[in-house]
């Protein structure tokens, strides 16, 4: 039996401020009914004073390490999927390493937007296939409220902040990550962007006036490509492992829009009880979406030994990916 990567602990963390749809009604021209009907979102959490990406990531990491029974000093690697780091340098992963005291661990961020956690697990899987004794912390953490234009009702209602984490190590048993499938299409990148704040468009008055420091999205086009990519990459994982859809015990998909989740469920022929949903509570938290959902599912005992789990994600870039595992 080859080395397999297994998740031995999960954790999540949310910021302190709850922002409901009713709150948004007082901020921008929208309504609770409009938001729920089109997205399925009822509320989201956003950071308050003193709360940063690394703060949330560290809290999620501590919760995952506690569940795993792993000390920070045992970690070999920390991977953080994020598009909203505290600073360009140092990385969120290095800040988490410092806060945890994980001095033995290498640390880096990766940028794959909403697919970041699946990309991170895929990298961890490759390391552990070579050395099953490694202990790797994979985190998805975002502070999207700092990249949202709160006067743009088409985008500000969608996003929230949060973090999720998983502790990954190896086994010779017949369980764990079975396959990962990663894709990207940079030709579609202009459909979902933050154009400013990088080296191509540094901070100038002109850039700020254009609103390029904020998320800009062509919603209908993003939806169209998302549903196709998610269905395709889900089938790719199923076929790679010889699974039929009725063998899937739980699907955890990126929580972007309830309509996308319903579309995917119908295309795969899954019953509602096999699709994990928490978008109504948190909105779209990008790279944090899947690990927060994974932690909730795990702590709710929806994942039992031997459960067949399918994860799928899609995000800006464009990136998309899937992962199949036996819990």
Please describe what this structure looks like:
There is one protein chain. The protein is α/β, with parallel strands linked by helices. Helices cover 33% and strands 24% of the residues. The chain has 10 helices and 13 strands. The strands form 4 sheets. A 5-stranded mixed beta sheet has the order 1-7-6-4-5, sandwiched between helices. Strands 8-13-12-11 form a 4-stranded mixed beta sheet, with helices on both faces. A two-stranded antiparallel sheet has the order 2-3. Helix 4 (92-100) links the parallel strand 4 and strand 5 (106-110). Helix 3 (53-68) packs across helix 4 and helix 7 packs parallel to helix 8 (258-268). The longest helix is centred in the C-terminal third of the chain and has 22 residues, at 219-240. It is globular, with a radius of gyration of 19 Å. The two termini are 16 Å apart. The model has no long low-confidence stretch (mean pLDDT 97).
Index terms:
single chain; 327 residues; alpha/beta; five-stranded mixed beta sheet; four-stranded mixed beta sheet; 10 helices; 24% strand
- What's the end-to-end separation, in Å? 16 Å
Low-pLDDT regions: none
N-to-C series of helices and strands: EEHHEHEHEHEEEEHEHEHHHEE
- What does the radius of gyration come to? 19 Å
Helix tally? 10
Percent of residues in beta strands? Answer: 15-25%
How many strand segments? Answer: 13
- Could you tell me the mean pLDDT? 97
Shape: globular
Helix content: 25-40%
What structural category characterises the helix and strand content? alpha/beta
Strand line-up of the largest beta sheet: 1-7-6-4-5
Please give the largest β-sheet.
5 strands, mixed
């Amino acid at each position: 039996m080859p080395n397999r990567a297994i998740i031995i602990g999960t954790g999540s963390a949310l910021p302190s401020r709850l922002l409901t749809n009713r709150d948004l009604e007082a901020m921008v021209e929208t309504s609770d009914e409009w938001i729920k009907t089109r997205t399925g979102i009822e509320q989201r959490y956003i950071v308050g004073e003193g709360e940063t990406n690394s703060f949330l990531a560290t809290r999620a990491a501590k919760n995952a390490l506690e569940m795993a029974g792993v000390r920070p000093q045992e970690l070999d690697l920390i991977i953080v999927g994020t598009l909203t780091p505290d600073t360009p340098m140092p990385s969120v992963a290095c800040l988490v390493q410092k806060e945890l005291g994980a001095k033995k661990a290498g640390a880096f961020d990766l940028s794959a937007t909403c697919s970041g956690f699946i990309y991170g697990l895929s990298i961890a899987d490759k390391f552990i296939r070579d050395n099953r004794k490694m202990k790797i912390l994979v985190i998805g953490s975002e502070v999207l409220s700092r990249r949202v234009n709160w006067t743009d009702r088409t985008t500000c209602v969608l996003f929230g902040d949060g973090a999720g984490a998983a502790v990954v190590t190896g086994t010779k048993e017949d369980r764990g990550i079975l396959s990962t499938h990663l894709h990207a299409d940079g030709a579609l990148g202009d459909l979902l962007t933050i154009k400013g704040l990088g080296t191509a468009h540094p901070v100038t008055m002109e850039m700020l006036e254009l609103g390029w420091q904020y998320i800009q999205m062509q919603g209908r086009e993003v939806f169209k490509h998302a549903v196709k990519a998610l269905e395709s990459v889900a089938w790719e994982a199923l076929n790679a492992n010889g699974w039929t859809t009725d063998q899937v015990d739980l699907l955890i998909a990126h929580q972007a829009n309830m309509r996308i989740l319903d579309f995917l469920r119908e295309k795969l022929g899954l019953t509602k009880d096999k699709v994990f949903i928490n978008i109504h509570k948190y909105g779209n938290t990008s790279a944090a979406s899947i690990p927060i959902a994974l932690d909730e599912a795990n702590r709710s005992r929806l994942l039992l030994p031997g459960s067949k789990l399918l994860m799928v994600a899609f995000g800006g870039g464009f990136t998309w990916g899937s992962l199949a595992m036996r819990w």
